[in-house]
Amino acid sequence: MSSVKSLLFSHNHHLLSVKGCEAGLDVLAFEGDEALSQPFRYRIEFTSADHAISKEMMLMKAASLTLQAPVAQGFGINVQQPVRVIQGVVTGFERLSTSRDETHYALTLQPRLALLNRSHQNAIYQDQSVPQIVEKILRERHGLRGQDFLFSLTKTYPRREQVMQYGEDDLRFITRLLGEVGIWFRFSADTRLHIDVAEFCDSQQGYEKGLTLPSVPPSGQQSAGVDAVWEMACRHRVVEQQVSTRDYNYREATADMSAQVDVTRGETTTFGEAYHWGDNYLTAGNAHDRHPAPESGAFYARLRHERYLNGQTRMQATTSCPTLCPGQVLKVTGGEEVAGEFADGVLVTAMHSHARRDADFAVEFAGIPDSRTSATGLSPARVR
């Protein structure tokens, strides 16, 4: 067993901690991928004077990556201070190389929800709503407690007669169910309990607002302690103009189960109709209502059209801001180089972050305009 004690002070820009490991872990580099409605994944390379760190000391252990940034203390002195903590569990461990002085390792940090893809089940759930099914799986099958997840929902979802899980792992199953009704999720850290927290939302009330950054070229702004945004790009395309849904209710065979929705109410940059059959709803709902009854035909038609519209404008940029995360709305200030969509605000849907001892921290992120966004219509996104 390792007998090397951890150092009390670290010169590293970022800090790695693994529960139960007393060895000093010095972060060499890391890359992280985060997106709405997907478990994040960070691969962290580190070195240690302890040559005997084993997989038993790492795998399935609670761990955290603390991102730090220089904070001015006066008299030209900057001190590294924590600005964001990524909390999770170690799901992978690598021993890469060894020298006389130190050994080079790597680990994979993910939220506990990511472990659900190792659980494959066949099950039937009766007389339960989607949130109830998800909570049942989290609590009863995986032992999560109230502090481990949070439902911040604005709608009341109906109980379903029967839902079947056949051959799906638990992560894919709950992600599919949540996506069907427009519930999205992200992750935060409880630094008091040292746990990751899954947050489930179904409206714009779940967005984090208030972040504004300037548009500044990347030359030297990190060393000056100024977070900024650069390499901004917007891509636009024509998407479906309206969505029609139809279904059959065996209990009311003559009922009209059709619904047609145009969320934009006649926008000229859209075209065509998308027809969907068999979304498994029992009532048509009111297609003219901005908030139709959950799991009605109008609800599914609106949700599907929101998904199409979320693909109408895609935005990408790079930033040095270490506090950025999916679910935040970022506004960018500057001159003519700032497109209106960035000035009005971009909802961050996915991001790829990276840093090394010899390279500054940076984040490439993707998003959609906040002026039209509806995260309920979001599908899992990747930075391309």
Automatic annotation (TrEMBL):
SUPFAM superfamilies: Phage tail proteins. This is Type IV secretion protein Rhs.
